[in-house]
Amino acid sequence: MNEIDTVAPGTPRVWDRFAVPAALQGLVGAAGHWHAGCFAEITRIGRFIEGSWAPGPGEAEVRPTAAGSWTEVIGRVGALALRAAAPATRPERREVLLEFLRTWARTPFADPAYRFRLGRLAGTTSFSVRDDEGASFGLHLPAARTTRYFEALLPGGEAAPRPEEPLDVMDCHRGWGDPGQLLRLVELVRERGPAPWDADAVVALSEATGLSRPAAALVLAGNPGASGYYTPFLDEHERAVLGYKVGELDAARGELQMLRDGDRLDLLADVMPADPADLWEPGGLARVAERTAEAWIEQHGAGPSAPYGTWQAAVALRTRMPATHLCHLFLDPARATLPSGFYLRGRPCPPEHRRLRTAWDVMSAYDSETLVEAVFAGLSWAYADLPAGDPVRAGAPEVVRQLRRVLAGGDSPARILHSGVMRGSRGSRRWDWLTGGPCDRVMARITAGDLPAGRYESDPRACAPEVVADVVAGLALSEDAAALYLQLLLLPVPSDRNVRRWNGWTPARHRTAAAELASRGLAVEDRRARAGRSLFLPGPWARAKKPLPPMETWKAPVLGARLSPDGGEVREFDLLPGALPELFARVWESIRDGKGPAA
To answer: Is 104 part of a structural domain of the chain?
Structure first.
């Protein structure tokens, strides 16, 4: 006898009070009302609908277990099935899900011969009625102006009995998950363990939809951004299965936060294979990914896909706008959308307008601040920290054009966006930068195409080779040491990791250049908080609080950074005051004039 048959239908397993909410959270609401006994109550409600059980003495109506949230699963149980089969699901939560699926399979809610509806009534608050055609009962017992109610039509039934005509009523979704499919899935997981993971399927889903790879992984694991599903968010085993780091998965969760429980259920309702055994076959998860991509595009449309390394760099910016949406903004500036429900803090964009609203159609100060922060952080980052040929970098000039276009309008979005640009102490500086020469010169560097593909503007050998040659001749340095010296003189974050990426250096090559500068007294070796490097210009140091970068005080005026009155702390910095070739030339001119940093 299989394990799924050893427990009598409706008999709850012994779990602590957090087990069921933890297993269902992010897909089914009312987490505080779920407990193991709910499974038996769902079975009893099913029996009431079938006619094999009726409320006994003192029981006037069917108990609305779990605040009625169990009705959300009807026709959408496929989402729970995917989570139950996913290898990233914690074992104790998989057990809860398997028991839920086993229970559900033995109720009318999995039987395609039944029809189910949800609606609202004007007055009646507590009732349960049944006849030969169907049954109905209230879902909320406390008195209220309207009462949610549920009705079931038996096979062949035309109309369920109601105590009054409803204010509205809608059919429940009818999707994957008949009794045979559910019990077969439970049996397979018991026998074979969770279905195999497929990293290539994750990449395919990401490329088809515009989701980041970590977000696509969460979706295929049956956990598309459920903020409270994990505490903490993903343990070591789960991260190992998915194949992504903590920061990447946290960013992916933020990317998916515009989804609500019902959205997640809808997304995954029909992605499971008709035969659950296909999950264990080669390409099984890839086929799930194909169906999931179709469902995602139907719900949200397809977005452009950024290179994975670019997305990872965008995550490090830590803007209020999720990294994927920031990349979308630069990849398709005119049509990039503002995800509904994310920016408005409880005032989501109506579903019928989800695909009409672009990121520039700001509707609130919060919208505006989110967009402005992302744009200004993204412009400097795209220009100086992404390689030539990167599609996100190539979109920066069009972002500027779109921002200027909207600001030039006289409508409500223009006024709201203008206030966002001008907000705070940096407002006028941002405005001057956007409407003046520095922005034009920076964008001109991107559109000119002078930088070789794959090279970085932050590498002076690529963007200002004549300046590097002057440094080599003027200070009798090697080309590598001259380039590193210019980077220390100018760039706000010349960390070891950044320098090696910009310059294409190995650690050994970097150390050789650093040692040459230190031996000449042009730089000093040290360890300083949040610097990410061991080589610094001589002279005073300005600390900084996140997200501002600490830096040598000598270069702060060149970068347009504002320091505290005593010069010991960076207080403001977010925009380069010009293109890097001109700035590299400016700092070298200062050195030649004897105005360099001194200990």
So the answer is: yes
- The Cα–Cα gap between 27 and 34 comes to 13
Count: domains in the chain: 4
CA distances from 110 to 174, 178, 482, 573 (A): 9, 5, 71, 59
Task: Say if strands 524-525 and 535-536 run parallel, antiparallel, or are unpaired.
Answer: antiparallel
Do 466 and 556 lie in a common domain?
yes
* Chain CA centroid to CA 153, Å: 40
The answer to whether position 453 is within a domain reads: no
Composition of the chain by helix, strand, coil, percent to 5: 50, 5, 40
Q: Are residues 474 and 394 in the same domain?
A: no
Nearest to 219 by CA among 52, 358, 412, 26: 26
Q: Is the pTM of this model over 0.85?
A: yes
Tens-digit pLDDT string for the chain (599 aa): 233 333 444 444 556 678 898 899 889 876 678 887 889 999 999 999 999 988 777 665 677 677 788 999 999 999 999 999 999 999 999 999 999 999 999 999 999 999 999 998 887 767 888 999 999 988 864 445 677 889 999 999 989 998 888 889 999 999 999 999 999 999 999 999 999 999 999 999 999 999 999 999 999 999 987 765 555 678 888 999 999 999 999 999 989 988 888 899 999 999 999 999 999 999 999 999 999 999 999 988 899 999 999 999 999 999 999 999 999 999 999 988 766 544 444 344 445 444 447 889 888 888 899 899 999 999 999 999 999 999 999 999 999 999 999 999 988 889 999 998 998 877 788 999 999 899 999 999 999 999 999 999 999 999 999 999 999 999 999 999 999 999 999 999 999 999 999 999 999 999 999 999 999 999 999 999 999 999 999 999 999 998 899 999 999 999 999 999 999 999 999 899 999 999 999 999 999 999 989 76
> In this structure, what are the phi and psi dihedrals at residue 482, rounded to the nearest 5 degrees?
-65, -40
Does any domain span residue 224?
A: yes
Helix (H, G, I), strand (E, B) or coil at 426: coil
Domain that holds residue 406: 308-448
- Give how far Cα 521 sits from Cα of 268, 518, 536, 587, Å: 62, 5, 11, 18
Whether residue 40 lies inside any domain: the answer is: yes
Q: Are 441 and 577 in a shared domain?
A: no
